Amino acid sequence: MSSAVAKPEPIEWFAQFGVDAMVTRRVLAEAARNGADDADVYFEHSTSTTVSLQDRKVNRAHLSVDLGVGIRVVVGDQVGYAYTEDLSIESMLEAARVASQIAKGGGGHAPVNTTRVKVRDFYPTNSPWSDMELKARIPMVRRWEERAFQHDKRIDKVQTSLSDVDKHVLVVTLDGHMAADYRPMTRAFVSVAAIDGKLRESGSYNVASRRGIDFYDDAVQDRLVDQACLRAIQALHAGMPPAGEMPVVMAAGSSGILLHEAIGHGMEADFNRKGISIYADKLNKSIAPKDVTIVDDATLPGARGSLNVDDEACETERTVLVDKGVLRTYLHDKISARHYGVKSTGSGRRESFRHPVLPRMRTTYMEPGPHAPEDIIKSVKYGLYCDTFQNGQVQIGAGDFAFYVRSGFLIEDGKLTRPVKDVNLIGNGPQVLESIEMVGNDLVIDEGGWTCGKDGQSVPVGQGMPTVKVAKLSVGGGAK
Amino acid sequence: MNSPAELLEIAKYVERRARELGADEVAAGVSRSVQTTLVRRDGKIEQASEATSRGLVFSVLVDGKYSSHSTSDLRPAAIESFLKQGVDATRFLEEDRDHALADGKLCGRGATEEALDQYDPAYAKRTADERARDVEALEVEVRRLEPPGVLSVATHVGDGVTDVARAMSNGFADTARDAWFVAGAEITLKDGERRPEASAFYASRYLSDLPSTAAVAEDAVARAKERIGSGPVESGTYTLVLANRAASRLLGMLAAPLSGAALHQNRSCLQGKLGEKIGSDVFTLIDDPFAPRGLGSRAWDGDGLVAKAFPVVKDGVLENYYIGTYYSRKLNVAVTTGGRSNWVVPPGKVPWETVVKGTPRAIYVDGFLGGNSNPVTGDFSFGIRGLLYENGVPTRSLSEMNVSGNVLEVFHKLVACGTDVWPFSGVQSPTLVFDGIQFSGT
Fold this sequence. Notes:
The structure holds 2 protein chains of 2 kinds. By secondary structure, chain A is an alpha+beta fold. Chain A folds into 2 domains: about 10-235, 2-Layer Sandwich (PmbA/TldD fold); about 245-475, no CATH class. Chain A has helices spanning about 10-15, 20-30, 90-100, 140-150, 220-235, 255-265, 270-275, 335-340, 375-380, 430-435, and strands spanning about 40-55, 55-75, 80-85, 115, 155-175, 175-195, 200-210, 245-250, 295, 320-325, 325, 350, 360, 365, 380-395, 400-410, 415-430, 435-440, 445, 450-455, 455-465, 470-475. The longest helix of chain A is centred in the middle third of the chain and has 19 residues, at about 220-235. The termini of chain B are far apart. By secondary structure, chain B is of the alpha+beta class. Chain B folds into 3 domains: about 5-110, PmbA/TldD fold (2-Layer Sandwich); about 115-225, PmbA/TldD superfamily (PmbA/TldD fold); about 235-440, no CATH class. In chain B, helix 5 (about 130-145) crosses helix 6. Chain B has helices spanning about 5-20, 75-90, 115, 120-125, 130-145, 215-225, 245-250, 255-260, 260-265, 325-330, 350-355, 405-410; strands spanning about 25-40, 45-60, 65-70, 150-170, 175-190, 195-205, 235-240, 285, 310-315, 315-320, 345, 360-375, 380-390, 395-405, 415, 425-430, 430-440. Chain B contains 12 helices and 17 strands. Chains A and B meet through strand 2, strand 3, strand 5, strand 7 and strand 15 of A and strand 2, strand 3, helix 2, strand 12 and strand 13 of B. Strand 2 (about 55-75) of chain A pairs parallel with strand 3 (about 65-70) of chain B.
C-alpha cells in the first residue's frame, strides 16, 4: 500500500458546520442534566457517489450527502437516544434534552476536559474519494462491461457500478474522550445475465474495501468481471441438490458466513448480558474442536470491516472469540464491558448518527487448520460443497441459523460432481461448531461487500474461512 | 420547516432552481418524519429514542442525461451547492432519454386524503406518559400469562408521522401525510440448552386499529410456547399451511420477476407469461393502493402517476407486470406502476383449519429463517419455523427445516385460501394452503 498523505483532522472537518469544543461541551452538559453513567455525541458527515452502467450506457449516477449528530445518554444499561440533522446549537440542545429523559432525578453531571484518543490507521489512502471527479469513474465501469462481453458469447446483459463513500466521524464522550476518524469505503459490482438456448441465469460479483482508488489494480478489476461471468455460466447447468441432512464442505473465503451466523451474533455481548443468547453461560467452556480458533478483527489493513476506532471512542483490536475450541470473550461495547467488568473490545458500532451503538462484528474469520483442502473433499462419500453465498440469518437464543448457498457442487466418492445452486442450509450453531470435523490450511478473507443487519441497523463487515468440513447440515433441496 | 405546505415550497424551489442551473427536467421531493420508540425489558425502560428527520431527493435530466441525488444537509447554501454539483455531474454521463418524466397529464391523485385515511389525529395527542404506560402494561400482561421458563421479556411501542412533498417540472406537485403505530413483545424461554425466542408485532395507521394489550400479549406467549421442544421431522413432501402473517415471504418472491427492470434485463422467470396461468384457480393477487388505512396505500406512485388498482394475478392468470415510466419506454409497453402498493389476496370461504382437518400430515409455517429465491429461474429455498399438524391437530414444534420449490410451480399447488386476512402489513393475505411441497429436515 502506498504511503498516506495528510488528511483533514475530523475535528477541523466539523468546524465547517460550527462544531467546536465549546459546542460539544454544552451539548454533553445538557444531555447529562438529569444524571448519566455515560453520554456521547457522535457527529457524522458522509458524501457518496455511485456511477452505473446498463444497456451499454453509463446512464445513471447518484450523489448523496448525509450530515447529522446522534446524542446518547446511558444510565446503567438503559439508553436514551435522539438525533438531528440540523447542527444548530438549538437543535442539538433539544436533542440532548430528549435523550436525557432516560435519566430522572439523578442530578447533573458536568463533562470533564477531553483527551484526544490516539488511533492507528488501518486504511491509509492517497486521496479522499470526494476529490475524484465523477468523470474519472466512467472508464472503469465501461472497462468492466467490455471485459464481460468478451468473456463468453453467452453473456447477454451486463450491469456494472462503482460506489464510494467518504465518511468523517467525531465522537466526544462525557468522560472526556474524543476520537475522530476518516472512513473511506468503496464497492464495485458486476452483474451479468447469460443465455444458452432456453437456459437463462445470472451471476454477480463484488469487491469492497476501505481504500482509495489504488485498491482497483488490474487483478482486482479482472477478477471482479471474470467471477461474475463464471458464476452465471456455471449456474446455467446447475440444479438443486437432493433435500436432507448430509456432510457439508465449506470452501475457503465467503464460507465465513457460517461463523457470522452460527457464532458471531451469539457472541455479541448485548445478547449475553440480557441472557438471551445460547452462548450466555458458555464463557471459558469448550464449544468446538481444538482445531477451531475464531477471530473478530478490526485491524486488517483496508478491510471492509476494519475500524481505526469504534463509534464510542474505544480503541479497536483483534479479538480472539474462540481459542482452540474454548470460548474466551464476547464482543463488547461500553455498556456490556461495564456489565462484565472487562475492557471494551472496540466493537461498539452504529449504522449512522441516526442509530444508537450496539456490539457488532468487524471481520470474522477462522484461523487455518492442519488439513489440505483436497483431502477434506476426498474424505466425503456423499455430501455438498458450497462456494458462494448470498445471505444468512440466526435465532440468537435457539441458536438455529441459516445461510443461502448460491452455488456449489455435489460431492460423490470424494470428488466434486454435479453443480448445484440456490439452496438454503440450516443448522444449530453450537451443534454445528461441535461437529466441525476438518479445518483446512487455506484461510481466505473474502473480498466482497458484506453487510450485517441487527436491530434495524446495517453495518459493513468482512468474513473469512479456510476450507471446513461440517459433519451434517440440513440441505433444503429438491426431491431425491 | 414543519408544515406540508412549507415542504412543498422547498420542493418547488428545488425544482425551479435546478432548471435555472441547466436541468431540462426535474423531480424533487422533500420529507420530514418524526418517530418515537420505547423498549422495555424485564421491568425497566431499555431504550427510549426520538428523532425528527428530514431529507431532500431530486433527479434531473440534463441534455438527455439522468442522475438522482439525496441530502440531509438542508442549509440553503448547502442546497444551492449540491444542486449545482448534481446538475454539473450529470453532463458527464451518457444520454438516455427514456429517463424523461411521465406526461404531466397522467400525474395526480387517484384518491382523496379522506378516502385513503392515512393520518390518525390521535397521533398528535399521543404523550410520552401514554407510551410509557402502554409499554409497561404490555410487559405486565405478558408476565401475567406466565410463559414457562421465561428468561426475558421485551415489549415495544412506537409511533411516527411522515410528511412528503413532491414537485416535478411536468407540473405535478402534491403532498402526503401518514402516521403509524406499532406494538409488540419478544419473549425468550429456557428450553434445556436452548433459549428459543418468539415475538408478536403489529403495525397500523390508526392507534385504535392495533390489537388490545391483552391480545398482543396472548399472541406473543402462544408463539413462545410453540417454540418449546422444537426440532426437525423427516424430509419429504407435505401439505404447507402458510400462516397469514408469514405469507408475504412467499408472495414476495414474485416482486422481482414482475418488475420491468428484471423483464428488460432478461432476469425474470415470468418473462413471456402475461396471460398465462402461473397459479391455480384460487390464486388471485391484487395491487390495491386505495385500501383505507392500508400500510401501502397512496394517491400517486413514485413517478407521480395517478394511483390505480389492478389485478396482478387473477384466478391463476398473470394479468399485469410492474412497469414504471422508464421501463415502459424501454420495453415499449403500457405503464402500470413502477412499485407495488398494498398486495391483497382475497379470502376464501372456508377456514384453513377446516381445509386441513383430514390431512394426515401438514406443516404450518408461521415464520422463516434465512433463504432466498432466484428471480431468473424461480427456484427458492427458505428455512422455516412452525408446527406439524396431523389430521388437523398440532403435534410438534418444528425448526431446523427448509422448504424449497419453484415460483412457477408453487402457486399451482395453492389449493385453498383461508378466511383470516392479516391486516397489519402491506401484504394482506389469509392463511394459504398448498399441496405437495418439498421440505427438508432429517
